[in-house]
Amino acid sequence: MSDKLYRWFNIIYAIQARPGITAPELAQKCDVDVRTIYRDLRSLDTLAPIVNDGYGKGYTFAGDFAMYPLNWTPQEELVFTMLPSILDHTQLPPGFESAYDKIMAARTREKRRNQDILKHVTDIIQMGSPAYREDSPNHLLPVIQAILAEQTLSVTYHTQSRNELTEREIDPYYLIPRDQRFYLIGYCHLAGQIRTFRLSRFRKLEVTARSFEKGDFNLANYMKHTWSIERGTGQITFKVKFSREVARYIKEEEMFVRPKMTDLPDGSLLFEVTLNHDREFLNWVNQYGPDAEILEPRSYRKMMQEKLSRWRGLYGE
């Protein structure tokens, strides 16, 4: 078994180093007959995407497959790490231990390099921090690491609406930036469902050794009809008329939804969008003041009239 394993690595590295290498050339390199190489290639088919480009053209890898970097799962890495303890060292061919050490060294270097790159990226990302806290811990690095490794987080979270701290376990799925903040979308074990968490509200955070799978979770479906981050259960179709003075600016806005925009004869713009929550959208519309008129739903026109009345009460003499 050890001879075969050693030969398999030689075959994979040979194909990676010389795409198009033929079976006779592999046989000569591995010092076996061609029939043995064909058997090895059939066995390796379940481990690596080896393809034959046609008669006389030799073997290559499909896609971007490569042995370096070593794209192992945690289980595969554990199994490979245990190899020296389960193999009979007296039966190992010359060079096996040095080859094994090189592979493990490459894996260690790759993990360290990825860690350094990730830390550098998180250091240069500057987002807002809570105004009421001078020391806001940066949980960005461990959260990204947990997402990539698919490992559960153990956290202490501050729920602003109830002003309380809760201990939770969260399977982190996606990290989303919104309005100078980061939000984490993942499965909350305490709530028993997918939830959205504001990163700055984590008081403590630890990456556990427990792994998870996202299953068939689809972020696009989850965020459908969501203006920014707040999600509701209903659907509201807004129609807003923007004046000609701001119409061109509305068209260049970067949005997370796909509105329908229609140019009107007077140069103004009719903006139509269906959303599951209203607050963030209304805040966005309000920034345009009298250059934005809500046409539908009619109930929101009445809401705006009441708000304007309160403003006049504040600023009227």
UniProtKB/TrEMBL annotation:
Domain WCX: 236-310
Location of the Helix-turn-helix type domain: 7-51
Pfam families xrefs: HTH_11, WCX, WYL
Domain spans labelled WYL: 139-207
Residues forming coiled coils: none
Protein name: HTH domain protein
Source species: Paenibacillus algicola
